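Exercise 7b. C-alpha cells:
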C-alpha cells in the first residue's frame, strides 16, 4: 500500500466531537474517520493556508467539473453543470429543503432504522415523521413496498428522504428498488431527497446506483445530496452539493438555500473538494480495501461472540450489530458497555430500530478496532458468566 492507515493520530486536543470523551474511553460512534485525509488534499490545504488571507470565496468551474467527471467516470451518471448547487452541508441543505418543499403539519417519509438527524430536520421544522419501517427478516433488511405505497398515498405525505447507501444498515439499494420507489413517488406527487453521502464508501469493486440515474421519472422528482465529507474525512470543511435536474425544483431549492445562508463556500471548501475528486482516487481505493479488511476482521472476531450478529452490508464504514440475544434494550446496552469497558457505540434506538441494535464505526486503525472488539468481548463474557 502506498498510503498508511495504521497510524494512530491523537485527536483529543483538536476540538473533535468524536473524541470528547472520558479517560480510557474509546469512541466508535459518530460517523467520521480516525484516518488523516489524503496527503494530496493536505498538501493543497497547506498551500492555501500559506497564502495567509481567508476572505470570501466564489465557486469556480473546476468545482462543477470535479463533480461531473467523478460521477461520470466512477458512477456512470452524467450530471449537467446546471443541475449542481453548492451548499455548506447535507444536513443543513435537508433542513432547508424540508422548509421549502413542505408545509407545517405535512408528512416526511423515512425508512427506519435510519440516520437519526433526519428526524431533527423534520420535527424541528414542524413536520411529521412518517416511518416506512424496513422489514428485518433472517438477518437482512428489505423494503415493505405495500406499506410504502400506502403511506405515500396519504394526502399529507409530500416528501420522502431516501438514504442510499443506507445508514445505519450499510445496504446499497438496487436499480429495481430505486425504480419502484421513483414510480410510486411520482404516482402520489411526492418529492424525493436522496442522501448519497456514503456512496463512495462501498466494498471494493462494488458500486452504488444513483437514484437520479435510474430514469427520467427519478430525475424529475428528486434532489440528490453529495459531498466529499464522508469519503475523504472532510466533514469539518463544510462542503457539499445538490444535484437537481428539474428546473422548477432547482429554483425553489436554490432560493431556500440562499435565504438560509447555506450556499456560500468558506476559504477551504473549494480547494479541498476539487483536490479530493481530482487527485484522491488512489487513496480512496486503498482506504476502501483497509475498511473492508476491518469488516472481515469483525466478522471473524464475532464468531466467538454468538450473542452478537453482524448484519451483512456492502457500503459505509458503519456496522449494524444485532444484539437481541443479550435480552436488553439498546440504550441500556450502550450505557452498560460504555460504563464497564469504555467502548462508546451508538444505540439503535436513535435510528428508530425495532429491537436491540448497536452501530459501530470501524473507520480506524486496526489496533483501535482490536481494542474495541476486545472490550466488547469482555463485556459479553461477563454478562454471560452472570446469567
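Sequence design result:
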Amino acid at each position: 500500500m502506498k498510503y498508511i492507515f495504521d497510524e494512530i493520530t491523537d485527536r483529543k486536543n483538536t476540538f473533535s466531537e468524536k473524541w470528547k470523551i472520558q479517560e480510557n474511553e474509546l469512541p466508535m460512534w459518530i460517523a467520521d474517520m480516525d484516518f488523516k485525509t489524503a496527503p494530496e488534499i493536505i498538501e493543497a490545504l497547506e498551500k492555501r493556508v500559506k497564502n495567509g488571507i481567508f476572505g470570501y470565496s466564489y465557486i469556480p468551474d473546476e468545482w462543477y467539473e470535479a463533480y461531473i467527471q467523478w460521477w461520470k467516470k466512477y458512477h456512470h451518471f452524467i450530471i449537467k453543470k446546471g443541475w449542481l448547487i453548492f451548499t455548506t452541508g447535507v444536513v443543513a441543505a435537508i433542513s432547508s429543503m424540508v422548509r421549502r418543499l413542505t408545509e407545517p403539519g405535512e408528512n416526511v417519509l423515512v425508512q427506519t432504522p435510519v440516520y437519526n438527524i433526519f428526524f431533527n430536520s423534520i420535527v424541528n421544522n414542524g413536520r411529521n415523521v412518517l416511518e416506512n419501517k424496513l422489514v428485518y427478516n433472517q438477518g437482512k433488511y428489505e423494503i415493505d413496498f405495500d406499506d410504502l405505497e400506502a403511506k405515500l398515498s396519504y394526502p399529507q405525505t409530500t416528501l420522502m428522504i431516501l438514504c442510499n447507501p443506507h445508514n445505519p444498515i450499510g445496504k446499497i439499494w438496487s436499480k429495481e428498488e430505486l425504480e419502484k420507489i421513483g414510480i410510486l413517488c411520482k404516482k402520489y406527487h411526492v418529492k424525493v431527497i436522496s442522501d448519497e453521502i456514503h456512496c463512495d464508501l462501498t466494498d471494493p469493486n462494488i458500486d452504488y446506483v444513483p437514484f437520479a440515474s435510474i430514469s427520467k421519472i427519478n430525475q424529475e422528482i428528486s434532489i440528490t445530496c453529495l459531498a466529499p465529507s464522508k469519503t475523504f474525512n472532510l466533514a469539518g470543511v463544510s462542503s457539499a452539493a445538490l444535484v437537481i435536474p428539474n428546473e422548477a425544483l432547482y429554483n425553489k431549492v436554490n432560493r431556500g438555500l440562499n435565504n438560509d445562508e447555506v450556499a456560500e463556500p468558506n476559504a477551504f471548501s473549494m480547494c479541498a473538494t476539487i483536490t479530493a475528486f481530482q487527485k484522491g482516487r488512489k487513496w480512496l481505493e486503498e482506504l476502501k480495501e483497509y475498511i473492508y479488511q476491518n469488516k472481515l476482521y469483525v466478522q471473524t472476531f464475532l464468531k466467538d461472540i454468538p450473542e452478537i450478529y453482524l448484519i451483512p452490508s456492502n457500503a459505509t464504514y458503519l456496522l449494524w450489530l444485532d444484539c437481541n440475544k443479550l435480552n436488553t434494550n439498546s440504550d441500556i446496552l450502550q450505557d452498560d458497555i460504555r460504563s464497564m469497558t469504555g467502548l462508546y457505540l451508538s444505540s439503535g434506538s436513535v435510528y428508530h430500530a425495532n429491537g436491540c441494535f448497536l452501530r459501530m464505526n470501524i473507520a480506524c486503525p486496526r489496533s483501535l478496532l482490536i481494542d474495541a472488539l476486545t472490550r466488547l468481548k469482555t463485556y459479553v463474557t461477563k454478562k454471560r458468566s452472570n446469567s
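Instructor comment: The radius of gyration is 21 Å. The first strand starts at residue 26 and ends at 27.
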